[in-house]
Amino acid sequence: LDRLRRAEVVVYDDLASRELVARCRPGCLRLHVGKRGGTRSTAQEEIIRHLITHGRAGRRVVRLKGGDPLIFGRGGEEIAALAKAGIAWEVVPGVTSAAAAGAAAGVPLTHRDFASAVVFLAGHENPRKTGPLIDWSAYARLKATLCIYMGARRLGAIAAELLAGGMEPGTPVAIVSHATCPDERVQFLTLRRLAGVKPDASLSPAITIIGAVAAHSAGIRAVVRKIKPAGRGRSRP
Amino acid sequence: LDRLRRAEVVVYDDLASRELVARCRPGCLRLHVGKRGGTRSTAQEEIIRHLITHGRAGRRVVRLKGGDPLIFGRGGEEIAALAKAGIAWEVVPGVTSAAAAGAAAGVPLTHRDFASAVVFLAGHENPRKTGPLIDWSAYARLKATLCIYMGARRLGAIAAELLAGGMEPGTPVAIVSHATCPDERVQFLTLRRLAGVKPDASLSPAITIIGAVAAHSAGIRAVVRKIKPAGRGRSRP
Description:
Two copies of one chain form a homodimer. Chain A is α/β, with parallel strands linked by helices. Helix content of chain A is 32%, strand content 18%. In chain A, the strands form two sheets. The first copy, chain A, has a six-stranded mixed beta sheet. A three-stranded parallel beta sheet of chain A has the order 2-1-3, with helices on one face. Chain A starts with a helix and ends with a strand. Strand 4 of chain A pairs antiparallel with strand 4 of chain B, so a sheet runs across the interface.
């Protein structure tokens, strides 16, 4: 908030909070750089051009994102471009979406009895990716909590890959859509049911939590008691 | 901050920010429940007793922790106890230590070219643990970024287990001690060197980031240029 109040330029995403953008000082240049399917890489180049142009002009620039900028936020690419251009930067860490989703659903991402580790994975990988692809079967065997970022349209396929890799069909799952927003929605199901879930764009943005923690805490059972009984895809009112 | 300002009781840890505790209203009961080695489980029972006693008395209680309460924060156990006692609760998510460490070191925890996943693991597992133990060799093969929470005293042993599991000896490592604090310190090394690191209590609390991202971004190379050349355990000034 301190950095925003002192910014001369703010470059913000679709997922950045509008309440925060509204706290900028009068006269601050506000650049909306929402990304949408198909124009992703063009948009990223434009974003970096904005940061460098205003940075070189000596302006105080805030790049505002939802979540944490260094966890599936492409912040690494942006600071690399700034470093290459000789522009000083700092990163203010944020609340990553999986933490917001855990809080919304009352699901602890780690638990000393059920999960000594938590994994954040990109469900929707960069289609022009040159680096390592995700080997879902390796994650199926970890006994860690898995949090799937993005990829709400691929949930059925991901569940099928985890099942093929040996993960228990009864593994509890929580899908948290629009965490922390007024239309926040939490659904509890099992991995077996997740494999049959049809692609649903209305779920996005969503975090899917897979693992024993999604059902084993008394905290979450208390939430479950408040939701409608039985049926697939139960929602918290 | 809103919740803290309205709190009648605040129950806070050693790692909670004193600046935040200072923002409580006058007359707020401040209970320091710092945990220290050896008394951990007694302290946890006491914490829960405080929460339930004040909660049952109808007081507005804030349980203040450093980091995110549901990621290695035992928040799951605390909300489970509250749910069992019939006391209403909400979780305000936080900036988990690994995100703070990534920001401090300029290391992106994920990167579309180098890491499609990031794992948070507890280096120091509960000695009386009944749940699954960590199979480090399974993590050695993931090609994901590993962030080790706690366990600064076990880093050499963890590195040895990862090497035995087949992880490349040249894998880049960043140890971030006291992230976001005035005595913040970042050291860059390799997994091979980490295996020879002696237990060092002055590093705690520390997050250790293991994976290609710890060296491959231009952002981090810019940081590395600022630090002293050569030698094991280089620190940022």
